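Entry:
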Amino acid sequence: MASPAPDGPFVVVGLGNPGPGYAGNRHNVGAMVLAELARRAGVKLAAGKGARARALAGEGRLAGRRVVLAQPLTYMNESGSPVRGLLDYHKLPPEQLVVVHDELDIPFASVRLKRGGGEGGHNGLRSITRSTGTKEYLRVRVGIGRPPGRQEPADYVLKDFSATERKELDLLLVEAADATELLLTAGLEAAQNQVHPRG
């Protein structure tokens, strides 16, 4: 599916770990972008019932498209189950799923868009792929860069952004939210052509 459906809805998921202790971690940048999207759409996120009880979610319009904005309430490595629950509840295929997540293989403050591909060791993506049975969902990859020196990636992603990074973080969240909106309105290829040249 090269371009979005005429009106959606799309399920847009921002990945992170629950609780205030993780809120500022690099691993939670997807959830931070989702909060910005919810603000733009005027959507209040709340826990649902049944299959939707394991995510904070809300429905509205974003850039003119119908969306379900959601953040799993599970830990990152169990993100797939609530995502699957939302897709099933709204009777949507994984092709209409957009996952916003942190990406080690992209420099800090860069944003990339793609559909499918590997998970690059990302436990949230791995869980979603396992639960949906496919890798062919859309991804908004928010660059956090590689850890310095010999720091383990697993430790690095669970640390808060550095003071230097925090100066650019607000702009990064805006750019990632803009890229998500563009993905929904223009389709993947056109959005890539606009977003990727920025670096």
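Residues 1-6 have pLDDT under 50 and may be disordered.
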